[in-house]
Amino acid sequence: MARDEVAKTDFRDAILWHLTYTLGKDPDHAQVFDWRLALSHAVRDRIVDRWMTSTRETYRADAKRVYYLSMEFLIGRLLEDNIVNLQLADQAQAAIEGFGLNWREVLLDEPDAALGNGGLGRLAACFMESLATLGCPAYGYGIRYEHGLFRQSFVEGRQHEAPEDWLRQPNVWEFERPEARFTLGFGGQVTVRDCKTLWQPDHFVQAEAFDTPVVGWQGRWANTLRLWAGRAVDPFDLDRFNAGDFAAAAEAEALARTISRVLYPEDSTEKGKRLRLTQEYFFSAASIRDIIRRFEQDHTDLRLLPQRVAIQMNDTHPAVAAPELVRILHDERGLPFDEAVEITRGCVNYTNHTLLPEALESWDEGLFGDLLPRHLQIIDRIDDQDARAHPDRRNTARGDGKVRMGELSFIMSHRVNGVSALHTGLMKTTVFADQNRIWPDRIVNETNGVTPRRWLHSCNPRLSRLITDTIGEGWTADLERLAELAPFVEDAGWLDRFARVKAANKADLCDWVAREQGVMLNPDALFDVQIKRIHEYKRQHLNILEAIALWQEMRAHPSDDWTPRVKIFGGKAAPGYFFAKDIIRLINDVAAVINADAATNGKLQVLYLPNYNVTLAERLIPAADLSEQISTAGKEASGTGNMKFALNGALTIGTLDGANVEIRDLVGPENFFLFGLTADEAEARRTVPDHAAHAVAGDPRLSRAIEAIRGGTFSPGEPDRYAGIVANLTQADYFLVASDFADYWRAQREVDFAYADRKGWARMAALNVARSGWFSSDRTIRGYMRDIWEAESLLDQ
Length: 797
Ligand SMILES: *Cc1c(COP(=O)(O)O)cnc(C)c1O
Hints:
3 domains; allosteric enzyme; nine-stranded mixed β-sheet; binds pyridoxal-5'-phosphate; glycosyltransferase; Glycg_phsphrylas; Pyridoxal_P_attach_site; EC 2.4.1.1
C-alpha cells in the first residue's frame, strides 16, 4: 500500500472511531452533524501532539512569550482552517466523500464563531494564525461569549436581531480547564495598614479558562487561544434551596455568567455601561494573573518580567491590565511603586484603532471608582507623577471626572502603534500629538494584514491552484512571492485562465444566491461589493446614492451602452445606531424598486445579503470584481477588507484613507480607482459654510437622487421615512457624502469603461493579486516581533 493510501485509511478509521466511541453514533444513522463532529475530533487529535510539543519547546527555550489581549476574536469556522493548515485537505475530503457525504456541506455545518464585531476582532484572529505560522510563542486572551455577535435578518427591509447561539452545539475545538481559575474582586474598600495598601473587594467572581489550539501553516507550531468564562465562587446556595427559594439558590451563578454572556454589539461607539467595564476588568485581570503564574513557574525575580513577557493590548479595552499589573507588583508583591510602574511599562503595548472621538473609551470616575477603587488610585498617582514630570502636558488620563483609556494606555506602554501609515501619521498630529512631543519614539506603525491561508488559499481554491501551477508551492507562507506572477499578465493564455477563475467564482455565487435568496443575478455583470459594518464614516449611503443616480441615468438614456452591474451589500449595524439602521432599510428599499424595474432589468441589480460574517466574506470576496473602500478620508484607521479583495483580484474604488493609500502605492495608481477629498481637504471642507447644500445644488445627479428619496420613490406612501438621512446629507454632512459624490460618480464611470475591456480589466486584477503580497499578516506580525515585542521565532526559518 502506498504511503498516502495508508494515511487515507488511517484518517477514515479515525473518523469512524470517533463517530462510534466519542459520539456514540451508529454510522448507519449518523447525520451530517455527527460526521462533522467526528471529523473535527479526528482533526483535533492531530493538532494536540503539535500543540504540546510547542508548549514544551517554549518552556525549554525559556522564550519570551507574547500575550495578545483582545476583547474580540472574530475567528469564524475552524474546521477547514485546521484541515488546510495541517495539510489534511485531500485525505479528509476523500474520507468524507467515501462515506457518501458532500464535503462542502460537512464543512459548512460548523457554526461561525462570531466573537467579534468586525475588523478589530478579525485582525486578532488573523494575528493568532500568523503567530502560529511564524512559530512565535504566543497566547491570545479574550472572553468566551456564550452569545457572539447577533444574527441579522431583514423584516420588511429593516434589520432584525436574534441572539447567536454558537455554543448550543458542542465546541470540539475548545478544552475546558476547570483547574485554571482565578477569583477576581470588584468594588469594596481600600485601606492602609502598616504602610501597606490593601484592596478589600466586596464581591467576587471566578474566571474559568477554555483553551483552543491555533495551528499554523503546515502544522509546524500551535499556540493557545485562552478565553475566560464567568463562574460564581459559590455556584449554589444550598441553604436557600432547602428553604424553597430555588431561583435565588442559583442567583450567584447566573450573575457571574452574565459577564461572559454577550459580546457588546458596538464596534466603534462605547456605551458607558457597568457590565462592559466589568467585562474589561474580568478578562484583563484574569489574563494578568495567568501571565504571572506562568512566569513564576520558572522565575522568581519579577523584575525580569519585561524580558520574558510582551503584552499587546488590542485597542483600549484591556487597558485596566496595566494598573492591575502595577497593583499586583506593588500591593501584593511589595515592589516599590515606581519600580512596579517601570516593569509594567516594559511589558505593555497598545494598538490604537480609531481616531473617532466618540469611539475613544472613557469612563465616568464615579463608576470606575465604584468598581475598581484601587485602580483609580493607581491611575491617579501615575498620572500625577507624569504631570509633574511634564508640566506642559495637556492631555492626561484623568480630568473632567473621567478616566480616559487612550491616554492611560499611552502612558503605560512601551510602544503604541497605529495600523496604517496614514493613521499612524494622524495619531501623531491629532489624538496623541501632545504625548508624541514628549515621547517621540513611542509611536510606531504596523500596517494591518490578513492571513493568506484563509483569505486566499482556502476561500479561493481556484485562484490558489492557478498560482501554484504558475509559480509553484511556497507562496502561502511567503506571500511576497506573488510578485512572480507579474510577468504572466502579458501572456494571453494565462490571463484567460485568470479571468476564468473569477468567472467560475462568480457563477458559484450566482448559484448560491439563487438557492438562498431566490434571486437570479446576471453573471456577466460587474460584481460591485461593499461588505463591512454599517457606519456613516464607511459611507454605504454614498454607494446607494450612486446606485439611485445610476438607475435614473439608465432610465433617462436607455439606449446607451451601460456596463451591467450587480451591487452587493453586506453588514450589520449596532442595534442602538439608528442612522446606520436607516441606511440598511434604505438600501433594501432601493433594491426592491430597482430590481423590479423592467427598464433596467439585467443592467442594474442591488442585493443586500443578510448576516455578514466571516463565512459570507469568504464566499463573496473571491467573486468580487470591484471593492468599495469609500470611507471619508481620515476616518478608517486601516481596513483589512480592502486587502482581502485586492489579494483575490478585485479592483478597488476608494479614497486615500487607511491602508488604501498603501494598496494604491503597491498595486500602482493605474490599477486603482481613486476619488474624493484627502484627509486634509476633508478637514478644510468641513469649515466651509453650507458645504453640503452647495455640493447638492451644484450636482443635478445628486440632487435628483436625493429628491427621489425625499419624494418617497423608495418608500411609497411614506415620504418622510428617510427625512433624517436627507436632512443629514443636505445640512451637516459631517462625513462629506455630498462633497465627494461628483468625484465618486466620475470614478464609477471610469470603472464602467475599464470593465468593458475585459482583457484590460483582467490584467489590472491580476496585477492587484501579484502586488498584494505585502498585506500578509505574517509581514505585520514580523513587524510587531521586531519593533514592539522583541520576540523570536522558535522555528527554523
Ligand atoms: C475583514 C472583515 C471585516 C473588516 O472589514 P473592513 O472592510 O476592513 O471594515 C469585518 N467583518 C468581517 C466578517 C471580516 O471578514
